Task: structure prediction
Amino acid sequence: MEEKIYGYWLPIDISTHGHVIDWLINWLHVFMIALFVGWGVFFVYCLVKFRKGSNPHATYDPVKGKVSKYVEIGVVIVEALLLVGLSMPLWAQFKNDFPDPANAQVVRVVAEQFAWNVHYGGKDGVFGRTAPQFVTSDNLLGLDPDDDAGKDDFNAINTLHMVVDKPIIVHLSAKDVIHSFKVPVLRLTQDVIPGQEIKVWFEATKTGTFDIACAQLCGLGHYRMRGQLVVESEEAFKTWFDEQASEIETGEDDFF
Amino acid sequence: MAEHSHNDSHGHHELGFWRKYLFSIDHKVIGIQYTLTALLFLLLGFSLMMMMRWQLAYPGQPMPWIGKLFGNTNMPEGIMVPEFYNQLGAMHGTIMVFLGVVPLAVGGFGNYILPLQIGAPDMAFPKLNMASYWVFACGGVVMLISFFVPGGAAQSGWTSYPPLANLATMGQTIWLIGMVFLITSSLLGSVNFIVTTVQMRVEGLSFFRLPFFVWTQFVTAFLLLLAFPPLEAAGVLQLMDRIAGTSFFLPSGLVVTGQLLEVAGGGNPLLWQHLFWFLAHPEVYVLILPALGIVAEVIANNTRRPLWGYRTMVYSVIFLGFMSFIVWAHHMFMTGMGTTISTFFQTTTMIISVPSVIILTALALSLHGASIRFTVPMLFALAFIPMFAIGGLTGLPLGLTASDLHLHDTYYVIGHFHYVVAPGTIFALFAGIYYWFPKITGRHMNTVLGKLHFWFSLIFMNGIFMPMFFVGMAGVSRRLYDQTQYAYGAQVQGLTAMGSWSAWMLGLAQIFFIVNFILSIRGGKKVESDNPWDATTLEWATPTPPPHGNFPETPVVYRDPYEYSVPGSDKDFLPQHVPDSGNSTSEPASADD
Amino acid sequence: MSAEEIPYTVEPHPVTGVYNGKLGLWLFLASEVMLFGALFSTLVLLRVGAADWPHGWELLNVPLATLNTFVLIGSSVTMVMAWASLKLDDFGKFKLYMGVTVLLSFVFLVVKYFEYTHKFHLGISPATNNFYATYFTMTGLHGLHIIGGIVVNLYLLFPGNALWKTAPEQFTNRVECAGLYWHFVDLVWIFLFPILYLL
Result:
C-alpha cells in the first residue's frame, strides 16, 4: 500500500507532537484568509462604490464606526491565545519534556559538509569519546581509539534508523559550519551549531522511509545533504542494528 | 571664496559639468543620482535572480542562449555549478536590499522629496549629502568587483553566517569591505535627514502637519542611525577573523574537509547572528516605511480626501520603529533557544504586528467616502495594500515558534518577505516614480504603458511568490540548488517551474517601464501646471523642475497636509502654503507641535 | 551654497536651541554608542561563555594605560580650553590649546604603539586567543577614532582656521563639534581602560 507522503500542503504527520503544529498552522491560515477576505471585500467595495465616476465629491470627514477597532482587538486576542495557548506550551514540551534516556533510543548526529554522521553507541549502548583530532576519512566521527566504549560504535552515515512508537533523543552537533536538521514529516527543524551539542526528542508513529534535509546554507553541497529517516518495527530495527554491530566486530566495516 | 549676500537672484557663477551633474551638493541632483544608480542595481539584482530561476526550474540543464557566456568556472557547458548558484543567491539579496531598494527609497525619494515637503532650500548638510552618495557608489563598485575575484563573489547568503562565511573565498572579504562603505553612506545620510527634518521645517509646519512621507523618512533615519552600527561592528569582527586570524565566531575544534582548523577558537557563531539580526530586523522596516509613506501620499492625493487617522498612523509608525529593535531573535528561533527568550521574542513579534495592521487599515479606510482617481501611481499604491497584507499575514506562522518548527528556512519564508518587499515596497516605489516624475522632469509618463506595466507586474509577482507558500509548506528548504533531490521537493517541482516562468515574464513586463521612463524624460507630455495632480503638499508649490534653492519665496504653512474636499471650499484641495481667505480655523501653528 | 541659505547653520534653532552641526554631531555620537556598545556586548558574551579568561592586569601594561588615561583626559581639558579661547576671542590661545590637544593625542598613540609592539615581539597577536582578539580590536578601533580626531583637529588648527577671519562664529561652532567628538572618544577610553585592563 503506497501511502502518499508529500503533497501540495503539509506532508503526512508521523510525529506525536505534530498534530498540535498542524492544528496551529491550519487554523492560523483560516484566520489569515478570513482577515484577508474581510479586508478584501471592504477594499473592493470601496474601489467600486467610491470611484470618481460614481462619487465625484469625496467626503472630508473620516468614516466612523467601531468595526475596525473591534477587528484589531480581535486580532490581538487571537494572536495572544495562539501564543499562550498553543505555541508556548508546545515549545516548552519540545524543549523541556525530554523522555528518560533509559526508556528512549539515543543517537548522536554529527553534521558535516555534506553528510549526516549518525553515531550509534553499539551493543554496549555507550557512546565512545570523540574529539576533533581523531577525525580521519575512515573515522568521520573522530572516535578516540583508546576508549573501549567506542570500539563497538558505528556510523550509519546519512541513515537514521529508529523504532516506531518509541521516543528517541538525538544529540546534534556539527564539525565545520552551521547546518540544520530538518525532517518535514516530523515537523522538526533544529539548527546544528559547531561548538555546541543541542538535543532534540521526538517519537514517530508510522513506519516508512522519509527525507531528512539540511535547512541552513552550508556550502556548495547544501542541496545534496540528504538523509533518510527509517522508522521500523522493533524486530526490523534489531535485525539492522545487529548487522551493523557485527560488521564492526568482524572488522568488515571499519568506517565510522 | 568670498561671502556674498543672498537675495532672490543667485550670485552663483555657473557651475561646470562636474560640479553640476556629478559632484553636485544639490539634494535634487543627488536624489536623481541615487535613483538612477539604484534602478540599475535593481535591474542587476533581478537579472541574477532570473538566472537562478533557470536552475531552479530545470536543474542541471544548460541555460539556453546565454549559458555559455559565463565561463567554465561558473557555468561549464552552460550548466550552473552550485557555487555560482550560491553566489547569485547571496548577491541577489545583498544588491536588492542594500544597493537597490534602500538607496532608491531613502537616497532617491528621501533626498529629492523631503526638503521640498518641508519647504527647505536643501538638506542641512549638502556636502555631507554628496559624500554619502559617492561612498554608496564606491560600495556598489566594490560589490561588483567581488564577482571577478578568484572564487567569485560572496556565497554564504546575504546573512553571511559564520563559520561558513569565515571560511569562504575572497569574495566574502570584499563583501565585508563593501558593506563598510554602504553602512558609512547610510549613517551620513541618516544624520542629514534627521537634522533637516527637525531644524528646517518652515514656519507653520509643526510636526503634526508634516506629510506622512516625511514622518516615515524621519523614523527610517533613526532606524538606520542606530541599527547599522552593530552590523558595522560585526563586519569588523568577521574581517578580523578572516584577515587577522581571530576567532570571534569560530568555536574550538572545527574540522573542515578533514583538517583540524588551526585557530585559537573560543568564539561563538551565534554572536554574529545576534549582531547581524539586530540590524537586519530594523532594516526590513527601513524597507517598508518609506513605501508606506509614498503610498499614503498617492492615496491621499487620488482619493481627494484626508488620510483616515493621520495621528494614529503617526503614533503607529513611531511605535513600529521602537518595536523593531526588540524582535530580532525571531530569526533565530531554531538556534537552540529556550522557553524564556523565545517567549519574549514571540510576544514582541506579535505586538509589532499591531501598528502595521493599524496603518494598513487606516490606508484602506481612507478609501471610504473617497472619489478615487485610478491614475497609474494610484494603481500601484492600491495594489500595495493587499500585497503587503499577504506579506504581513504570512509572518504570523513564522513568528510563533511552534509553527516555525516546520516552516523555518523554507520557501514559506521567502514567499513571506518577498510579498512585503516586491509587490509591496517595489510597487510603492513605482507609484512614487510615476507620481513625482512630472515634478522632476516637467513631463508625464505615458499612461497606457504605465497601465500595462502595472497589470502584468501584478499578475506575475503573484505568479512567482504565491506558489512559494505551498512549496515551503511541503517542506522545501531555502537556498537549494536542486530541490528535486528530495521526494517532497520533486513533488512540488511544477510550482517552482511556474514561479520561474512568472519571473521571466515579470522581467519582460519591466520593458514597458524602462521604455516609458527613458522616452518620457524628453518626449513625455508636458505638464500643464506646476501641480498637475492638484496636490496639497509643498513639493508641488515649486517651479517645475524646482530650481536651485527650491522655493523662490520661502513658503509658510497654514494647514494640515491633506486638506482635500474641505466643505465650503470652491476647489477640492487646499494646498498647505496658500493662505486662507478668512477662515479662522487655519493658522500657522507654532513650529514646536 | 553659502551658510546663509541653509538656516540655523550658525544661529541656534529657536525650539531645539542648537545649531545644525551640533544636533548632527550628537546624532552621530548616538550611532557611535551603538557601535562601541556592540563591541562591549561582544566582549561580555565571549567572556561569560569562555571556560577561562585571563585578567587584564595579568597580561597588559596597567601603568602605561593609566598614563594614557590621564593623557586623554588632559587632552579633553585642553580641547575645551581651545573652544573657550575662541569664545573669548583669543585666537592665539586657541592655537596653543589646540596644539597641545593634538600633541597629547600623539602621545597617546605613541604609548599604544609601544604597547602593541611589545606584544608583537612576544609573538602575541589578535589571533593568539579571544582575550587578545578583543583587546586589539577594541583598542584598535578606538585608535582609529583617535586618528580621525587628530585629522580633524589638525585641519582646524592649520588650513581650516581661515574661516575664523570670515565667519568666526561658524568656526567656533566647528571647534565645539570637534570637541564633542573628542570628549566622546575620551569617554570610550574611560570605559575601555577598566574593562580591558583592570578586570
